[in-house]
Design a protein that fits this description.
The complex is a heterodimer of chains A (251) and B (312). Chain A is mainly alpha-helical and 251 residues long. In chain A, 83% of the residues lie in helices and 0% in strands. Chain A has one domain. Chain A is built from twelve helices and no strands. The radius of gyration of chain A is 20 Å and the shape is globular. Chain B is of the alpha/beta class and 312 residues long. Chain B folds into two domains: 6-225, Rossmann fold (3-Layer(aba) Sandwich); 228-296, Alpha-Beta Plaits. Helix content of chain B is 29%, strand content 29%. Chain B has a six-stranded mixed sheet, with helices on both faces. Chain B has a four-stranded antiparallel sheet with strand order 2-1-4-5, covered by helices on one side. In chain B, helix 2 (97-107) crosses helix 3. The mean pLDDT of chain B is 85. The chains are: A mainly alpha (251), B alpha/beta (312). Chain A binds chain B through residues 1, 4, 8, 11-12, 15-16, 92-104, 247, 249-251, and chain B through 54-58, 73-74, 76, 79-80, 82-84, 86, 88, 90-95, 99, 103-104, 106-109, 149.
Chain lengths: 251, 312
Amino acid sequence: MIWIIVKKELDAYFSSPLAYVLIGLFSLITGVIFFNLLVSYTDGIQAIPPALAEEKSFPEEVVYPLFTNLNFLFLVFIPLITMKLFSEEKRQETLDLYWLSPVTDTKIFLGKFFAALGLIIAMLLITGVFPLVIWGVGIRDFSLLGTSYLAVLLNAACYISLGLFCSSISSNQIVAGLLGILGIMFLWMVSWGGHLNSNYAVAEIFTYVGITSHFERVLRGLVGTQDLIYYGTFMFLMGFLTVKCLGRRNW
Amino acid sequence: MVNMDKILVVDQVTKEFPGRTAVSGVSFSVNKGSIHGFLGPNGAGKSTTLRMIAGLLVPTSGTISLLGAPVVADKLNHRNLIGLLPETPPLYPDMRVEAYLRFVAKLHRVSNVSESVDKVLEALTLTGVRHRLIGNLSKGYRQRVGLAQALVFDPPFLILDEPTNGLDPQTVVELREFIKKLSAQKTILFSSHVLPEVEQLCDQITIIHHGRIRASGDLREIHRRFRQGLVLRVGVLEHETLPDLSGLGKYEVTHEHVVGHERRFDLVFADDRDCRAELGRLIFDRGLHLLTMQVQSPELEDIFLHATETQS
């Protein structure tokens, strides 16, 4: 049942220009970022003595900044994808179709969640040419590329669940999109609060609640249970709230 | 004991929203295999009631049972039993007709999707537009697609909320014929503002006003109930007027108008006694010219107005 909804949503993405525009724009921006990082790295290597060049870490100079920028791009791209998923259906009164069929609200949420994640994976697949380019220019250091992809995927999944919740509380796409952007920014700012607070315990709470510390740890290959619990809990909470919000029709 | 002749039983249903009561103590039932007309002015509580029956809203109190089992909004058991065509059909403009119907059929776990979709496309003469985007279809075709989604999983009970509203006359006639044919296999709860249409299609009606049921039951029985006395239309020459008829019984002239050279009077007598012969003689005796004498039976519109005006 979930797959039927995933397929319908993916068909809807790819039958409209939105998916192609987003994928194209995302590829262009990430391509430019990657090119600049790579040029700056290779220029840096050539500018310093060979003995010091080994100290310049490729992941630190290129991989981490690249994936941090990808995460930054999601601030706009993911709310653009998720904003219409429920709000548009509310406006067109098409949610009745689901509610008149033997499909639970949880399955509706999961169907839309995996469809949006599928589109994000399609966008990230384009960045798969970057390792080939790296290979082409003679760099063989691919360490931590896998966990970097895992980090952006986990973040994307959290943003999608947040975006779906925002879309479920408003029948106006623009409002849903803006709420999504604000929500993601809030997750980042909570992390910054951790850095600024002088009280250790409070700072730790801020750091844990914010998404950035978990992202950075997974990005660097330090995938811990507390990070996976954080991501899992966040997505579950957003799913739970979305399902509750959809169930509000019965009130 | 469950009465299996009644496919739907709505019992003392009330729905309250913050600050207002949409429907209050609504009770009526729908017989199996009938087309049941559901009438009421805008804001009467029609759509709220229909949405509660479809399980899209939870009643504040009261019960709704379909085929003997209670309809509970967050339970899934009744959802394959009801096909709903809401006033605004739930359509995706960016989907193609066939893909949309396949999607709905799959949501309802139809075993043979292709066969069901082909059947409903053919029945509603949608085969020619099966590959077209729904957003590019005319209103008539979109309404047909809306009806097709309510039928594609073959539910025994159909709710049609103003299905012919805003359609061109030809499509209205075609849809009406289709609905008539459907009633051989399904029970239909049919809401409409077009009263002659309801009269033409429905065996039973329910009239709702201000969230309360004003009349419900067999259409002929309701006709009888609302007919309070003999209603006659009498026509004389334009320059003539009716004599005093109080000798025939208590009466009232409800309407007077001129058509061509004829002046027509609508007379309502307090009792049902047929006094046409005496009335005719009286008119001739006064040297007047009787051009028309017709017994008027109350139309559904009169019943509707009576039910919604006098009790409001």
